[in-house]
Amino acid sequence: MPSRRTRFPALILFLLLPLFAQHVRAQQTITLGQSIAPLYGPWKFHTGDNPAWASQDFDDSQWETVDLTPQQGSFDPIIGVSNYVPGWTVKSHPGYWGWAWYRLRVHTNAQPGQKLALTGPADVDDAYQVFANGKLLGSFGKFPASGGRPAVYNTQPRMFLLPQPGGTAGAATQVLAFRIWMEPSTLILSSDAGGMHAAPLLGEAGVVTAQYQLAWLGLVRAYSMSPTEAALFLLLALLSLSLILFDRTDTVYLWLAAVFLLTAVLEAILCFNAWTEWDDAVVNAALMDVLLRPLMLGGWTMVWWVWFQLRRPAWLPKLIAALTLLHILSNALGEEFFFTAVPHPVGVAFHYVSLGIRLLFLLLLVGIAVEGIRQQDWEGWLALPVVVLAGIAQFQNDLGVLHLRTVWFPFGVQVSLGTVANFLLLAAITALLLRRALLSVRRQREMALDVMQAQEVQQVLIPMALPQIPGLTIESEYRPAREVGGDFFQIVPHASDGSVLLVTGDVTGHGLQAGMLVALIVGAIRAEAAHSHDPLLMLESLNQRLLGRGAAHATALALRIAPDGACTLANAGHLPPYRNGKEIDMPGALPLGMIEGAEFSLMHFELDPGDTLLLLSDGVAEAIDPQGRLFGFDRIHALLKKNFSAAQIAAAAQSFGQNDDISVLRVERTLAAAPSVA
Known about the structure:
The chain is α+β, with helices and mostly antiparallel strands. It folds into three domains: about 5-215, Galactose-binding domain-like (Jelly Rolls, Sandwich), CATH 2.60.120.260; about 225-440; about 465-670, 4-Layer Sandwich (Phosphatase 2c, domain 1). Helices cover about 40% and strands about 20% of the residues. It has 16 helices and 25 strands. A hairpin with a 6-residue loop joins strand 14 (about 405-410) and strand 15. Helix 8 (about 345-375) runs antiparallel to helix 9 (about 380-395).
């Protein structure tokens, strides 16, 4: 973008040397000792472009006269610097952009051996070449050899050595000429744009060099805040991204990371443009004003929308996205980055469209903050002044056109209304994030308490001491993958006929939700067992209980063992048991809770004295080692051949790499009563 966006009044601010200065008038003599003088004029001015206008002998008497003497208390309406001189658009050339020339005839008396130098104007729209007696001394901006539009940059200090006529001391006349180019977009940025807004300085080369170095130091200091802001916002973006890892459900951290990163990029570009000539300022400003600033404005609006967890109106996020895209388009056309294709009146019209969009965003921000006050009280009150100031900062250039100061230079550091808004925004976000972190810690403590209570409930549901069943030895081992498991088993002896009913299974999911479903199933098992020990009726009852509960599904296996060893086995999608180390072959069936009236596998067999049954959950076979290998059924068969206990099988799967809840029931028929082990 043209230099008016980030111009720094380096040379004017540093007229603090112990030197004397005189106003220069045409043909007025200046005696130069160790001195420097601002060339206020009168300058001769003419719009257009002609190489002959650089000549020492060109007659410029018919040109208009321009005085660069600043009025007391004047300041640049865009960047707020003092001693500002309005441009040609308020001096009989409104709406003009393109080429223009300034000429000044200076008569000097140089001391023997003294070299003279000239500084470029510290405030100019937008690029220039400088000539002395028709000889090109240098330029600011990249002027192509073939002619045409030059590349412009943000104004930086420049110094040019003047030739010594004849190489002798004494009186000499220098005809200084500045050939200046102004971008069309500068017309929209300022109501008094055009040409030089500060007088060049003429003086002894050593003094001008010192002034030039001071100007560069001042420029670096003025924009020292930008890299600080860039680094700070980059750290905040990384912090926000790290917070996503702790709470993936809260999208506000993603939005914060995005806008923080955009702000860091913008501030980095700002200082990079001010200190270097690496890229055309028009291209860089197009990146900042056409892309980054609209995305940041839309992003911040979404941040507060998500922060206050607003849901109505549901179409508002789509409106924000549409306004952001329209803002990008209107800025591209309104600031005339495509000036060769878009007429100036069209650009002006789109500039007002951009102004209207920013006003609408300001209303949205205020409305969201007010709704935040209604829903969350003090968080909304904290956000309200911040979003209002941040919204007003979007009109910084527009306020400058009205000659309202929006930029200040405390200790030589440039502080704009946007800078103040950024730091207040950071303070508010920090306070809100701290409160959110405290609330998150409190919720985590409450959740930990809930999990602990769920563990206590599950310990009651999972038998810790197994009942003594005559003729049977029963071992159980239960190892949940998380604090609360999803496996279950129940052993219910019949009060009169001496049989026992074993029900084991695995619910879908993990954690607290699975634990609650286990509690429901165990309660249903106990309720149904009070009426019947029939395995098939048990599974049908459990299936009915789980229907209509969404994703509440479970595999289950019900086994009834009579005192004489007669077994009735019903299966609902669970792993078949192993009899004497071999898997019982039985048809598959749907899990519980899938469909009404589901048919489950049913079979009968005899358990002879010395026979063993092993009931496993799929957490054993699905254990995974660090190399990604499954524990698998082959390893299960190998363990069964060695007649491992329930605890040994569970320990082997767990040490291999537990990935799911592990439960193992081992039942052995004996001739005499033997103790059961849990």
